[in-house]
Amino acid sequence: MTLQPRPFEPLPLGQVRPAGWLSDQLQIQADGLTGHLPDFWPDVARSQWIGGDAEGWERGPYWLDGLVPLAVLLGDDRLMALAAHWVDRILASQQADGWLGPVHDTRYGYAYDPWPLFIVLKALTQHHEATGDERIPEAMARLFRKLDAVLAERPLRSWARYRWADLLVSIHWLYERTGEQWLLDLGARVQHQGYDWRAQFRSFPYWDKVHPIERDQSTHGVNVAMALKAYGVWSRQSGAADDREVPLRMLDLLEQYHGQATGMFSCDEHLAGRSPAQGSELCAVVEAMYSLEMLVSALGTPALADRLERLAYNALPATLTPDMWAHQYDQQVNQVVCQVSDERVWTSNGPESNMYGLQPNYPCCTANLHQGWPKFVAHLWMRTTADSSGPGDGLAAVAYGPCTVRTSVRGVDVTVMEDTEYPFDGAIRVTVRPARPVRFPLLLRVPAWADGARCVLPDGEVSTPRAGTFVTIEREWPGETQVTQELPMRIRAERRFNDSVALSRGPLLLALQIGESWRQIGGMPPAADWEVHPTTPWAYALDLDPVAPEADLTVEHRPLRGGPFSPESAPLVVRARGRRLPAWGLERGAAAPPPVGPVRSNEPLEALTLLPYGATGLRLGEMPLLAR
Q1: Do residues 575 and 551 make contact, with C-beta atoms less than 8 angstroms apart?
Q2: In Å, how far are 138, 303, 519 from 448, measured between CA atoms?
Q3: Angle 135-153/115-131 helices, nearest 10 degrees?
């Protein structure tokens, strides 16, 4: 038994680094909650994982899983020292029998609860890739021996049973470095004991917002987000083609019954249907992104990277304040007010769920939000594997954003610089600079929405690759060489809930800008709690032709400076027109579902402003259409 090769191999942490606005975005994160939680949040500052007396379950590990890549990608000495301190204390906690960390946490877990270790292992493997710390593979092997014995007596249960894929990722990581067969035997045990997500999505019963009697861990949004990668990861060990189909079926069914215009599915806390007033939990967003990163590697499917960008450039920034000092538990595509409300639309979440704050509703997202941006950057580029069915031993641009890659290809040091303002602009300039001439394939993804894309090759030849594919440039790279990818960003109109329309430009969802009044209701700045109330009307229907929407819209560009995800700094503005709908209002503390369109209104035609969804605190992302 062995592992099947992956089409794309993630590069070791640190070989892809952010540039341009992405570097600014990661610095904002470092200056926000990620870099400062240990200063004041007990669950990190005094975590049992580092010998303290506070929570000793998942919160410290969650934070560390995002801190490690953020510190490495920024080259931030303070954060790297902080991460190293945590790694040192965790490794020092290993007991004689191999167990790492707290054995019993009476509040959050049970004796030998393996779930928090799933997260710790992801942080440790990243740290090893960046630093070469040889203590880590040895500690992991000892832990896995202990875990194998524990699972032989007490199979996976509770959260660990539903999140088994996260453990399998780390087991495979160690196997690839040691080749020890017993690790794959452990992987098979974990898969066998884990929840059967394949069966749930073979005859998927949840066609709408789940009823209270249906709610369990199989409908829990974060569990589902983590499970997206399960059979893609497992397929490397099983070798079964039908395992590779399971993630695609899961995504199709989630989109059909719970899909949101952001590319996310509703989950507030549980699967909640297609209405744009339902929420999506921040933990689920970052876990879905990580699952997609693993799936792109395992399956090589370009559409998975399209969805990854959709989440990264819309759902992720929208649920965070621009300075990343506060976040929501639940975000809404149609979010017209954020307030503490006992009258609420969620499946099970509490009255604080869509306010912005330090730990609204439940603190898991406070701990887990940190992995989203740095892991996305780390997976922008991957290696094409020599043993895969596609072009081998090269580099692939899986997702786009300004960055620099420094790696080795066929024994030659290679630097790749990606200069772009993507996703706000479709021009992407890739400069390849090898230490000496070397031949290898360079793959550039062409998104499914990029009909008419052009790729300008080094000799001036222009190719017109098909949308939804990877274009392969197989050649010798003699020295500094540039390839330019031009992705047309036409505005597209998609019909959604109640025949409403969602407008997109490239990977960006556009949303109606609503005036925002931020009111502090608790805490102390910068980590305060905020309600957001509208200062302008929001109940509008769009006046445009959904078949050819650009004829009724005007696109304006602004300079891209610093963090682009706020109404003031958004580098893209789209002007539209619409009429108010006086009968459309609130329902259970949220925007009522959009009226079934096309609709009629006698109100005057008004100028409307649309912004990138991720730049808004209040917005409409799905709007009814006016009858023409």
Answers
A1: no
A2: 43, 7, 41
A3: 160
Who's near 24: CB < 8 A, 6+ residues apart?
A: 562, 563
Q: Kindly report the average pLDDT of the chain as a whole number.
A: 96
> Do 290 and 303 meet the contact criterion of CB atoms below 8 Å apart?
no
- CB-based contact 432:481 (threshold 8 Å): yes
Beta-carbon contacts of 241 under 8 Å, excluding residues fewer than 6 positions away, are 235
Neighbours of 258 (CB within 10 A): 26
pTM, two decimals, is 0.97
Helices 77-92 and 33-40 pack at an angle, to 10 degrees, of: 60
Query: 45 exposed, middle or buried (CB, 10 Å; 0-12, 13-18, 19+)?
Result: middle
- CB neighbourhood size of 97 (10 A): 12
Task: Classify residue 550 by burial, with Cβ atoms within 10 Å: 0-12, 13-18, 19+.
Answer: middle
Distances (CA, A) of 544 to 197, 226, 538: 42, 38, 17
C-alpha distances in Å from residue 316, one per residue of 140, 278, 398, 565: 31, 16, 18, 10
Q: Give burial (CB, 10 Å; 0-12/13-18/19+) of 411.
A: exposed
Nearest-5° Cα angle at 46, 40 to 50? 135
As a whole number of angstroms, the distance between CA 583 and CA 183 comes to: 61
**Alpha-carbon distance 102 to 100, whole Å?**
7
pLDDT tens for 184-239 read 999 999 999 999 999 999 999 999 999 999 999 999 999 999 999 999 999 999 99
For helices 135-153 and 164-178, angle between their N-to-C axes, nearest 10 degrees: 130
| Residue 24: count of CB within 10 angstroms of its CB | 17
The values of phi and psi at residue 246, to 5°, are -60, -50
594 neighbors 602 (Cβ within 8 angstroms): no
pLDDT tens by residue, 233-282: 999 999 999 999 999 999 999 999 999 999 999 999 999 999 999 999 99
- Strand stretches in 275-367, DSSP E: 279-281, 330-332, 334-335
Cα–Cα distance for residue pair 163/224, rounded to 1 Å: 9
